[in-house]
Amino acid sequence: MNQTEKAELFGTLHRKGNPVVLYNIWDAGTARAVADAGANALATGSWSVAAAHGYADGEKLPMSVLVETAKSITAVIDLPLSVDFEGAYSAEPEGAAANVAKLVEVGAVGINFEDQVVGGGGLYPAERQAARIRAIRAMAEGKGIPFFINARTDLFLAESDLSKHAGLVDEAIERGRAYAAAGGSGFFVPGLIDPALIEKICAASPLPVNIMMRTGAPDVKTLAKLGVGRVSYGPGPYRSMMEKLKQEAATIYSPL
């Protein structure tokens, strides 16, 4: 497949009630393992890629390293690749678009793009984030790629008190609609695990909704019934792999 075909395929995999499942990877090796396991698309997780290179999350990983990581994956795996690009390493629409273009150039067909102010506080106003999405969409259209912009809101992830999530749903729906109008392809609501609230957002969203698996989240079959169009695993695979590595190493280095 060429890049355009991969992008088109990736978009069609997002089906309400029949979600694409993305077990997040962090390098070419894990991409190969997940592809061999039967995945029909790949997605990196920013936390995992950063940790694999010794960095903290939050755009601490140099962007050049992230771009090279994406390039190494697309060079060896013939599946659509989406890159978790956090805030695109720029607060300004033009800068965000120029940075995303670097991922397009190495073969990626999508990104996660969040509305929190990376390294700052709070979220961008919805219209400011919409302007950033519009700039990325215009760049992708200029390159003739049906690029998948998974527009992420951090409303729920930023609120650790789950009892307050119901009060955030209306704003989330408004943001999702604004991001759709600006050219978003999907709506990512990490941190949300309440089935009733997930169903409400799925019913109101013009975009396929992405739920991240975490403790307390419904299983994939339940999420499909709720209308979810994409399920991802975030840093879970990396943490699981590192815990297994530590345990095996401990058996080797523990006193005999």
UniProtKB/TrEMBL annotation:
Extent of the signal sequence: none
Keywords: Lyase
Membrane-crossing residue ranges in chain numbering: none
Superkingdom as given in the UniProt entry: Bacteria
CDD domains per the UniProt record, alphabetical: ICL_PEPM (cd00377)
GO MF, one example: lyase activity
A Pfam cross-reference name: PEP_mutase
Entry-linked SUPFAM superfamilies: Phosphoenolpyruvate/pyruvate domain
Protein name: Isocitrate lyase/phosphoenolpyruvate mutase family protein
Species of origin: Rhizobium ruizarguesonis
